[in-house]
Amino acid sequence: MKPTLFVLAAGMGSRYGGLKQLDGLGPNGETIMDYSIYDAIHAGFGKVVFVIRKDFEQDFRDKVLSKYEGHVPVEVVFQSIDKLPEGFVCPADRTKPWGPAHAVIMAAGAINEPFAVINSDDFYGRNSFEVIAEELMRPRERKGDYCMVGFRVGNTMTENGGVNRGVCQTTEGLLTSVVECKDIAYDEAHEIAYKDESGTVHILDYNTPVSMNMWGFTPDYFDFATREFTAFLSEKIDVPKSEQVIPDVADALIKSGEATFKVLDTDSRWFGVTYAEDRPGVVEKFAELHREKVYPDKLF
Question: Which domains does the chain possess?
Answer without folding.
Answer: 4-149+211-254+269-291 (3.90.550.10)
